[in-house]
Protein 1
Amino acid sequence: MSSVLSIRNISKSYGPVRALQNVSFEVPRGSVFGILGPNGSGKTTLLGIVMDILKPSSGSYLWNGQPGSNEMRKQIGTLLETPNFYHYLSGQKNLEIAAAIKEKGKEDIPHVLEKVNLTQRRKSRFSTYSLGMKQRLAIASTLLGNPDILVFDEPTNGLDPAGIAEIRDMMKDLNRQGKTIIMASHILDEVEKVCTHVAIIQKGDLKTVGTVSDVLSTGGDGNLTTVEIEVGAEDLVQLESVLREMPGMLHIHNGGASLLIEGEKAVNPEAVNKYCFEKGIVLNQINLRKKSLERRFLEITGGKSDR
Amino acid sequence: MSMIKNLRIEWMKIKNYRVFQVFSVLYLLGILIIIYIFYKIYLSIMGSVTGQEEGMDFFSLFSSDNIWGTVCFATAFLLYLPGMIIINLFINEVNFKTHRQNIIDGWKRETFIYTKIGLIFCMCIVIAIMNVIATFVMCRVTGVSFSLSGLDILGLSFIQSFVYLMLALLLATLFRRSGVAIIVYFIYGLLLENFFMWMFWKLAPGLQHFLPLQVADSLITFPGMNGIFGNNPGLSIMIPSALAFAALYIYLAVRKYKYDDL
């Protein structure tokens, strides 16, 4: 899978404050790539650099293998940080300006307004829009010209639960159409539900990057860490004493109806089943517990805000 | 062609902006009003000297030879208004963050700032046209026959307007806050520069003509009179100097916009 965006050793400093430090990763084509980090971790700074509104202190980036350029940006739909529009103009007029800069025709405007449910308010001034409507107009603007790459920074900011669900569905739908979506967010649930890949940034450092499932099962250094499995048998006491002897076992918690075991990488469901069977125990339950992204995120970042 | 296309986009941005509409109308009407008021006060003063209700054009300020210079000199006092409009338009972009969005959507940073300079160029053309209209009106009022003999002064007025508005744009790029940029523009133009002129006039005579706005003001002197702080060195020096200042403002504004974080 070729890279849509290659970020190479990007650093950014504001005086003594280092906002980004040697961040490098690749965004595969066709992925929904989440950039995850606590508030103030450098997500927006990174997107600002690849959209040329911030200058990196060092490092470089490539879009589709080419250095960033204004012609490239015209082919990318981007919502960065906040919806940026002329407050005294209507939603429609604002989109006309965006379309003119992108050198796209006006014919897309009714369609994108319909897609974000703003057709009825298209002639209202932007300043009269609610926060959610402003966000939806910004998303409509990113869809002008049907770009293959979309960049969203906190796309569900200000949306109500129904709006959030709509935007998530829209992103999944766009991804199914083959579009690459790069999304910065601090909302773990959002990333977990939508993204195929994730990069976690903390205090400007890239902590981990990979597919969501890889990140869920590996540590920040890319090595597999621990595995959690729920197991059950007719005699839980005997099962617990047997499993305590199993190599790689770290922790066993007796939940009454089943055991929750935590072990090293080698302690996978197949190995546990085989080990128990060899010890004469037949398991009647074995489930690999999937860690939530929230838990992995907190493990990696230490659970602290970067502000 | 590309600049025309960009200016069309710029026009889409500002044509429905109420502040721009109101200030533009006030300014354009102001040009006509200020020259007419000046004319009436001038005649009144001349009248008081001669003991009549309304005096003669004793200094020939509104003669066919001088009327262009008088109109352009008097209307230049209003150049702070379009300067304010430029500051307001630029800082609106910063406040709304549309200066970033335009880049994100595909403009080069240079395109954004050059389009603003193009807008200033267009505004200077409008100002020049208004000076022609004001001259024509004053010719009708005074009974002087209208001729295009003062087109050279109109050219100087164009350069003067361009320097004023470019300085306004530069201040907007530097300060990024409407209030601060406008206050600096006014305080510098109306107070500080006069102080510097006096200071240079005393300490380094001749240099007083080469201050950021005075370099443009020196292009058009009041007909038949020298500047308060002495004669300027002549148009052969002042025109290139004013253009050099304008070029410096363009360079600094473009450089600031091209390399800074937005």
Note: Chain A has a mean pLDDT of 89.
Protein 2
Amino acid sequence: MKKFIKIADAGLLRLFFIMVIAFAFMIILVPNTSLFLKWSNFQSMMFQLPEIGILSIAVMFAMLLGGIDLSVVGIANLSGILCSIVILNTYNHIGVVSILLGCIAALAVGLGCGFLNGLIISRLGVPAMLATLGTMQMFSGIGIAITKGSAVIGLPGEYGRIGTLMILGIPLIMWIFIIVALITTILLQKRRIGWEIYLLGTSEKSARFTGIRRVKVTLQTFMISGLLSSIAGIILTSRSMSAKADYGSSYILQCLLIAILGGISPFGGFGKVVGVVISIMTLQILSSGFNMLRFSSYQKTFIWGLVLIFAIIINYYADQRKLKKKI
Amino acid sequence: MKKNKFKNEIFLILTIIVLALLIGIRNPVFFTTANFVSIIRNLIINGIMAFAIMLGIIIGGIDVSFPAIAVVSMYITNRYAESVNYSGSPVWLFVIAMSIGLLLGMINGFLITKFKLPAFIVTLGTSSIFYGLLISTLGGKQVNRLVLPLETIAKAELFRVTSGTSTSAMPVTVLFLIAVMFIVYLLLNRTMTGRMIYAIGGDKVSARKAGFPVDRITILVYGFIGLVSGLAGICHSIQSRMCIPTDLMGGEMIIIAMVVLGGTKISGGKGTVLGTFLGVFLITMVRSSLILVGIPSVWQEFLTGVIIVAGTGISAYQVLRDSRKLVPVMEEEN
């Protein structure tokens, strides 16, 4: 057990180093260093980070079970759309309360979508990647059908406050992200469900012999993932003040990249929320640095790909060394 | 065991017939030859890629970089042809496109075998590398006019059918679809390499222990996927008569879904050419018939999702049910 902790910590330490290097790299590279180190730059990072951060944690949950969830962005958009529609239809009658109602609707949609994912995966035995590929199309398809493919606009200004409000100098959405990270950490490290997820992800067979109910745990995992996606959906809509079925279509690649970089094993059973958080911060630092260097989105896409491949290769060599040490 | 061999194919054919009847009753235009030709025309590019991707899935890896490879090959070839005002034989343009594809595919294969990682993750990375590099170096300008040799192929048609008010022409590119289908069929069923691909996908460790050159075959498969994607890319530019670098991108998931719907096992080891063709046909048929039935096209995405979930769900459930029937001792073996 002690050895296990050591190894996990070595991975986290490595991640932390990568983040520091990325930070140093950007300080050197960005021509106007004071601009990069300004508090306002960090604040804008904190505005950009939460939605993709929460989505990455959602992706992480599916990955811990050894599957890939492709539907998170679809769920986020669908809950954003329904949230907006509820608000638009009730705002004239009940005012600000409608925002609360909209958010509840969004979370309910997230839970429902996650439940459907879990049901298809556990009851029908469809591999997670395939099931969520289908539901991704279904969720964004419903979104397209409801909105006729255009954006839902005209949301009340109060709703936009979710995305702009600052508490103690830190954006509200960043607080939401911190709370989400804390709660998921507790769930995974201190609660029964966490153990069950890790065990089921490591070995389905041993999990069965331990008496873990596969169907129940899978359902719970995907419902958590769906709920988190809908929180990201609320943030996404409030930041852009509109909802559309195809927002953030490039997010899925970035989420997977963040999870892998964060040390989540694509084979399941390994990885921690802390790793994901560090990895998001690293990517956010790189991303805003590249923005200041005026990189195009395609250049960024190229770099994300390189980072992903490098992360994989580094992990591979680290694992090799670990194996050699054991022998 | 023998009895179940074509179970999935028969199920697919029945589904296609039932859906076709339903669509046809709503709108008789569906049963015209012109409509059939237009469905075939719509499935050519996806079909070409689907057969290659099937090989990847059979060997146990999901390649998502093939649209990027297709676009890179298509775009570089067309930009090159445009810049030198190419007027030689079109064969060389195909060779260029397919070589680029082969090279990129082998890079995938190398990374996958060398670092023993899921193909899905690796190709997700290389896909952004290939595409990001292409657009950031060459820019995203579209090529509006193909060079003459390609334009000639684009104008040529095998035959043209007229039913009522609508006419449909069968493009020459369909020959490439047939060729790829035939080659993949021969490769899988008539060569040792094909049997090894099934064996590796079924159980990699055993295949390695049996002395199969697992890495070499894997690189070969990903190289082949790249090569065929290059072909699909140039065929796409021929069929659309222009070359837009944002085309094809994002189509990877639906093509993978077509292959899996065709009975190819997502974890590897199983899959047939006929099944894949039926999967491609089914989804293309439904997607292109929505307007005929009067369903607004905004529902297209949703219905595709439903078909994927239903199709994969039914076959997965059968597997699950069958495995429950086995005695517990057997269960431990897998």
Note: Chain A has one domain: 7-326.
